[in-house]
Design brief:
By secondary structure, this protein is of the alpha+beta class. It has helices at residues 5-16, 64-69, 74-82, 122-132, 150-158, and strands at residues 26-30, 35-39, 57-60, 88-95, 104-110, 116-120. Strands 1-2-3 form a three-stranded antiparallel beta sheet. A three-stranded antiparallel beta sheet has the order 4-5-6.
Length: 169
């Protein structure tokens, strides 16, 4: 028995949906606009976009640079979704300091005293620094000790596994 077109397309989209962030797990392709992306919720009847214009969407770009440097990139949303929150009142956002530079994944959280802090994930900061300041390592910045890095901020402010002498403030 040959599967119908819709069933075949659903299976194909399910495989390609692995590129989608958990918060927008419905994959779609639009052959007219040549756009590939993801959305949260249902697809429209032709399965080439979200069912409504109010649904959040992200774009799967054809180049690594665009997937890294665009605020609406599914790759950036996926990385943000998969990064674990910590502390209290934690939120994660995508931020961009300058157009056409790698997007930073920013984690904002409160420590045990209720003081708010913001930091960027190590991976996103490394991409940003590599693109904007190729010799950043020569300036003494250590992403394993700098409190502007989320993993270090968590260890210092939340877990208390790093002391002030161990970090770069």
């Amino acid at each position: 028995m040959i599967p119908n077109c819709t069933k075949f397309l659903q299976e194909e989209y399910k495989k390609k949906g692995e590129q989608c962030p958990p918060s927008m797990s419905s994959y779609y392709e639009n052959n007219v606009s040549k756009k590939k992306g993801c959305t949260s919720g249902a697809l429209n009847k032709t399965m080439d976009g979200p069912a409504t214009t109010k649904q959040p969407t992200c774009v799967i770009y054809n180049s690594l640079d665009d997937n890294t440097n665009k605020l609406d990139s599914c790759a950036n949303y996926k990385e943000m979704d998969e990064f674990p929150c910590f502390g209290e009142n934690c939120t994660k956002t995508l931020t961009q300091n300058k157009a056409d530079t790698p997007v930073l994944i920013t984690v904002t959280f409160a420590d045990k005293n209720g003081i708010m802090h913001s930091a960027h994930t190590r991976a996103s900061m490394k991409r940003f620094l590599d693109a904007t300041q190729p010799n950043w390592k020569d300036k003494g910045m250590d992403l394993s000790k700098n409190v502007s890095i989320a993993e270090v901020a968590k260890a210092y402010y939340v877990d208390r596994t790093m002391q002030q002498a161990d970090v770069q403030l």
